[in-house]
Every structure is written in C-alpha cells, then in structure tokens.
Amino acid sequence: MKKTYIILFLSTFILGSCSDFDEDININPNLPNQASGTQLIANAQLYLPGLASSPKGEFMAQYLAETQYVGTSLYPQESTSFYGYYQGPLENLQTVLDSDDLSGSDGPVANQVAVAKILRAYFYWNLTDRWGDIPYSDALMGSENFTPKYDTQEFIYNDLFSELKEANDMMVSGSINNDIVYDGDMSKWKKLGNTIRLFMALRLSEVDEDTARDEFNAALDAGVFTSNADNLVFQHLADANNQNYWYSQVVASNREWWALTENLVEEMKPVNDPRLEVYGDPARATGEYVGLRFGEEENIGTEDYSLLGSQIFAQDAPVYLVTYAQVLFAKAEAASRNWTTEGDAGTFYEEAIEASIEQWTGSSDGVGDLLDQPEIAFDPDNAIEKISNQRWVHLYMFGYEAWSEWRRTGFPNDLVEPNGAAVPNRLSYPDNEVFNNEANYEEAVQRQFGGEDSIYGNVWWDE
C-alpha cells in the first residue's frame, strides 16, 4: 500500500512539473500575446487603400470602361458586402477605443485614442455614403449583440461630427509609434480629422445647409490641410506583401481590362491637361489618347484605346485618399455659396487645379496654360459646375468619392446610361443580412426605400 501511495505521489508531482515546465518553455518573452493600441491602428490603416482601389468605384464615376467583361460595369442589381470593414479595421479601432490598458510606451494614450476616432469616423463615413443607413451604435459589440440596429445616416453624420471634434480637442504633444501613414505626426492627424469634417459638412449642402455651413466653418477654424504635404496617402511598396491593387490586377494577372472612358479623355485631351499622361497610356495603335465609351460592348480592341496608365498600376504606386486639392475645391464652392467671406472662389479654384497637377505629376508645369483655356477658366455664373467638373477630374482613381460628389451636385452632367442603365444612387446591402439580421435589415430598407433594397434608392443627403 505504501508503494502504491509513493508511485501515485511521484506520478502527480512529475506530471504537474511537466505541465508547468511546458508552459514556461512555450512562452516567448519577446512575442506579445496581445496587440498594442498602435499595432491595431496600423492594421486598420492597411485597409485604407481598399476604400479607393475598386473597379466598381471607377465604374460608378465612369473613369474606366471595361474591355473584357463589360457586363460587370453595366450596373447590375447586386448586393455588395460591408462585412469586411466591420470584421477588419472597425473591429481593430473599436478594440483600441474600448481598451482600459493602452500603453503609454507607444505614445500618449490620448493621441492613440484620437487617431482611432479619426480613422473609425473615416471608415464609417465611407460606408454610410455608399449604403445609407448602416449598423453603427449597436455594431462591434461581439457576443453582446449579433443583430445590431441600423442607425439613420443623419444620426451617424451628427455623431461623427462629435467624434471628430473630440479627437481634435483631446490631442496632446507627443507622437505615436507604428503609424504607417503620418509617422506619428499628430499635427497632421489633427488636420486630417478636421478636413474629413470639412468634406462631411459639404456633403450636406443640399439637405441641411445650415448644419453644413456651420460645421464647414468650424472645421476651417480648427485647421485643415494647407498643402499637398498633408495629404492622406497610402504608399505601397515594391513588394508582393504590400503592392498596389491595380498592379496585382494588371501586371501580376496579365489583364488589360480597363481603358480610360471617352468622357474622361474628352474632358482632358482638348485642353492638354498634363494629368492625362499619368492617368492613362496612349493607344498602342495610334499613339494618341483615345477613350472608350463607357458600357461599349462591341468592337473593343485594347490596341485602339488608352488603357490604365502605367504609373497608376506601378507596384509601389500611392493611393490618394484625402487631399489638399479637395480642400481648395471645397473652399471655392463654399465661397460661391456665400458660406465664407475669406478668399475668392476663382482663386481657390485655380489653386485647387494647381495642387491637383502637382500631386499627380510632381510638377506645376502646364498649370498656366491649362488655366488659360476657356473651357477651364473659372466662370462665377456657373461656379458649382466648373468646380465639380474639375474636382471629378482630380478624384480619378477614387471613384467612390467622385460618385458621392456627383450624386450631391449632379456634375459632371454627361455620364452615360449604357443600355438604359442609369448610374446607381447607392450600393445594395449584403445578401446575408436577410438571414443574419432580418428584422433590423427589413426595418432599415422599409424606412429608407419603401421596402426595396434597390441600388436606385436615395441616401439621406441625396433626397
């Protein structure tokens, strides 16, 4: 009996010791078991270029015409998922905001929170402008709520204004680590938050002009972009792990599926716009810039049209998201609407074009000649049209943003309707929402669009 007890005791001791030993040797003191706040922010930043790099976005703004599978560009009634944004960047950023133990070793905690707020606002703004009402106040709660309600776009806008104000006010001196966008420079983050607020305010020009004007001027007073050096740019690398989306589509996949549209070329070629040489390549058959009519289904030869520019699909090509030229176009429009008394609309307009050319070409060469063209010269009697058309030219390769501005202003007013298919007014919700979140989905569709989840329903600011 004593031998039995001794054997059991030794077995227990050895097994327990082995368990403790295994735990000890399998812990890597140099590998954190939880991502830091700035690491989560950096991961969210990796999703930024995806907001702009999308064939569907280019089709919505009619920058690119499909040369291969034309049907995909003819505005089919189809669902578009927003799940990736909730499961990726928004979840990361919400984790930062919900954390009670952010480390100051990565920079002031207040600054980490401020950056997370700005980025979260930017992602949510893009989502609500594309889909309309979306899950917001009940979203990202995990197992506490798998079926979040859809908040109205009006509520979301007002709450995002508050979030951006809070972010601006809470920043302190000191940089943050792991910032792959601004390298921790909080002065640039402050300008970015206020610039996003400026653009959001302008978006409300046709639905709530008083709020639009007040928020616009408050953002100006708080401090917005003052040069191209402030631009929110995602810089890709000449590396397969972080390469430009269009490189993977054009070069890596050997596809010549996208040509400049006829509308874009006809807007730029007659006035010798220096940006055209960046936007596209000359047609191989003629050496001239030739646009393809959007939605054209017959007689398409890739030799005959100007395809997507080689600078645009370079492996390390940058993606421009929020830019100084947009700020100047916004100031020009605000001056034309008599929202502001500082500055002249025509001057802002010309400065915007110059900033755009410098952004895209790296030089101001050709600015004076372009501004001298009668088709480009500012006309105060048609100010909104002039500003909107040139903003459309500038926003090339961020089709979703250009599409939002088109929905708001109606310019350019010559977008085509291939086979009678008009440009959509929104994206349709994910199909899975009918099963995953049926009651809230149905309520949102009924509230906004009378029960039909159509791509031709209008979002709140586009009524």
Descriptive account of the structure:
The protein has 19 helices and 6 strands. With 463 residues, it is mainly α. It has one domain: Serine Threonine Protein Phosphatase 5, Tetratricopeptide repeat. The strands form 3 sheets. It has a two-stranded antiparallel sheet. Strands 2-3 form a two-stranded antiparallel ribbon. A two-stranded antiparallel ribbon has the order 4-6. The N and C termini lie far apart (88 Å). InterPro entries: SusD-like_2 (IPR041662), TPR-like_helical_dom_sf (IPR011990). It comes from Salegentibacter flavus. This is Starch-binding associating with outer membrane. Pfam families: SusD-like_2.
List the helices and strands and how they pair.
Layout: H1 2-25, H2 37-45, H3 48-52, H4 55-61, E1 64-66, H5 83-98, H6 109-131, E2 134-135, E3 150-151, H7 153-170, H8 186-203, H9 209-222, E4 232-235, H10 245-250, E5 258-260, H11 262-268, H12 276-279, E6 318-322, H13 324-336, H14 345-361, H15 367-371, H16 383-394, H17 399-409, H18 433-436, H19 438-449
Antiparallel strand pairs: 1-5, 2-3, 4-6
Brief characterization of the structure:
This protein has 19 helices and six strands. It has helices at 2-25, 37-45, 48-52, 55-61, 83-98, 109-131, 153-170, 186-203, 209-222, 245-250, 262-268, 276-279, 324-336, 345-361, 367-371, 383-394, 399-409, 433-436, 438-449, and strands at residues 64-66, 134-135, 150-151, 232-235, 258-260, 318-322. α6 (109-131) packs parallel to α8.
